Amino acid sequence: VFSNNNNPDNSNNTTRLRRNEILKLNGSIPRSIIINSNSSMTTTGSVEINLNPTLVKISSTVYITGTAKGVSNCFEMIRKSVYMMTDLFQSYRIIIYYHPIDGPAFQHWQTIDPNVILIVEDPTLFERSPYKTEVLTVARNKLLSSVLEDMKLKNVQSNNSYMILMDLDDRNFGPRMRPMNMPLFANVMKDSDKWDSISFNREMYYDIWALRYSRFDANVWAFGLDSFALVKIIRRDISRILDESKKIGEPYVPVLSAFNGLAIYKLHKTLDCEYAARCIEFRSPCRGGDCEHVAFHRCMREKHQAKIVIHADYLFTEIPKPKPSLLEQVQKRLIGYLSRVRFGSGLMLGLEPESFPYYLSYAVLLILAAYLCRRYRPCCRR
Fold first, then answer.
1. If you average pLDDT over residues 157-167, what whole number do you get?
2. Burial letters for 88-108: b for 16+ Cβ neighbours within 10 Å, e otherwise?
3. Tens digits of per-residue pLDDT, 90-100?
4. What is the DSSP letter of 178?
5. Distance between CA atoms of 81 and 78, rounded to whole angstroms?
6. E strand or H helix that includes residue 146
7. Is the pLDDT of residue 231 over 70?
8. DSSP states of 184-241 as a string?
9. Would you tell me the crossing angle of helices 182-190 and 75-86 to the nearest 10 degrees?
10. Banded pLDDT at 133 (limits 50, 70, 90)
11. How far is residue 214's CA from residue 255's CA, in Å, rounded to a whole number?
């Protein structure tokens, strides 16, 4: 428990209230997630959130960290989600590693909230490190070192602190994403004795590269063309394991490594560990290295005997896409057809997508499809 003297949130509730009032005036945060001492049960979208600080405050410091690039279309959702998480804790810091193109939005955020710390990406980093995993390794290590530096500066104890690492992108906060499942988040923090690092399931578990578990502990992209089929096999397997664990009431599934867009860490279990993109698997050399999360989680297990788990429930869910109409399905198939069909020895029908022959061929086939649908209307209805 922190006193006002060493609390990174400084004046605590006063700072939060001032921050929320500024955001409310700017139209950046809905009334349903404004935090004050009189708050009670509130609904944001389809997610019920308990906003009573006397009931949900955790006597800990949380460091919310994330990497961002080109997030203008989801910036407000990011900010709202971050504050829904921070208001469960006694004190917080927000550390963002961002690309210069997002500078104005994040810099404005920093002027509103003094607990926001910004790290700007070196624009030449991609030129020196062409592989994305190497760039992310640099970013995540800078976030981690910034957390440790701030802990020393604020005299924050690591055994009473958490770090939340997120990818600030469309997969988590895009226009088609629902608000975070905050009841699940609160329950996970309540059951913190069951994990040292925890990530979450998805409707489609996408982060197979960072996943290692008892049935498969190897770099999935080290198998050449077989890797694509292997990804599908592992996705089905881990989804089945998580679904079965959820059905029997044991949602905390132990693994060797997992991320999937967001993970929560007990900070004292991350000491003397860092992210690395090195590839140490048994198969052929993996171009571009291994996933940076694997080395980090391996270090946590070996040095601190960390319990790394996946929760079988969804923290993020997507708004279902509307079923495409018959015309949209025909258009999609025609575009795919025009891009690859060939005649004779190399004569290609589908030229460049912006060319006149492309659109002319597309129009002819579309008219033909409409004629067939009109002639065989009962068949089209089926």
1. 93
2. bbbbbbbbbbbbeebeebbee
3. 999 999 999 99
4. P
5. 5
6. helix 132-154
7. yes
8. HHHHHHHTGGG-SEEEEE-SS----TT-BBTTB-S-GGGSTTHHHHHHHHHHHHHHHH
9. 30
10. confident
11. 7
pLDDT in tens, 239-264: 999 999 999 999 999 999 999 999 99
- Locate the DSSP E strands across the chain: 41-44, 47-50, 58-68, 89-98, 116-120, 161-168, 197-201, 252-254, 262-266, 308-314, 342-343, 347-348
Residue whose C-alpha is closest to residue 264's, from 98, 90, 121, 62: 62
Residue 339 has pLDDT above 70, yes or no: no
Instruction: Record the tokens describing residue 3, joined without a space.
Output: 């006193």
Task: Write the CA distances from 250 to 109, 163, 201, 271, integer angstroms.
Answer: 39, 24, 13, 29
- The two three-digit tokens of residue 78, written as one number: 């990011």
Q: Which of 81-90, 111-120, 210-219, 368-377 has the lowest mean pLDDT?
A: 368-377
* CA 228 – CA 134 distance, rounded (Å): 22
| pLDDT, position 41 | 29
pLDDT at 18: 57
Residues 279, 284, 286, 292, CA torsion sign: negative
The model's pLDDT over 26-46, given as tens digits with 9 standing for 90+, comes to 444 433 333 333 333 233 333
301-313 in b/e form (b: 16+ CB < 10 A) is beebebbbbbbbb
| Token digits of residue 139 | 């970013």
Which residues are CB-contacts of 334 (< 8 A; sequence separation ≥ 6)? Answer: 362, 365, 366, 369
What's the whole-model pTM score? 0.74
C-alpha to C-alpha distance for 143 and 150, rounded to whole angstroms: 11
Cβ(90)–Cβ(11) below 8 Å: no
